[in-house]
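Appendix B, Record 12. Input sequence as logged:
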Amino acid sequence: MPALLNTDLLSTAGTEPGCRFLAEGYLPLPDLLTPDGLDVLRGEARALEAAAQRRDFEMGCMDDSPRHMTTLGGHVIAEKSDLIPGLYQDPRLRQLLRRISGQDITTVPDLLERHVLNILHRVGDTHGAHTDDHPYALVIFLEAPEDPADGGLAHFAPGADSLHDLDTGQARTAHHRAGDAYLLRSDTTAHRVTPHARPGLRRTVLNFAYTTPAAHPLSTPSAAELYG
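Logged structural output:
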């Protein structure tokens, strides 16, 4: 098995004082995956996609924001893949997240949303406005539009009082390429994915949810509606 993670990034990211993540609730991790790791994980995701389900609805608990995407929940991934659960549990990855966040990052008990696959592959596909039940999300890009004008951008508002903060000057967008990742303080940062603008685009991400021993996770039906 080739190395999946960029060891240089594992050893250096988040070490500087006043880490951007603490101020913004977001930190990009470019080239988190090695080229070989990207190939292996992308192949794994393509194989798992046969078990994924199409979702097209408005999520009531998130201000009726839209979901137009194809998803696979963590419970199915755990049954069909050793690779992805193994990466989720990788102690080097969790040590990186601890260093960035300054918190004792741990795995979440809910297998459904622990590690999920999100695929946007049609015109207009979007993961609408939301916050997460658990405090930290590591989003790993296996496929992504090359041109930011094509959509599929992370759109987020740190320290949001409501999802409507995404429509204010507080919000930011970020473009990522295949092999990149980012860490998000996902329970207090309103976020969404901008719609795909044209045919032929694919945005495939692994979303790893993490928590801390002191965290009090939110209790919404969002994960069950999207991944159940």
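The CA atoms of residues 19 and 38 lie 26 Å apart.
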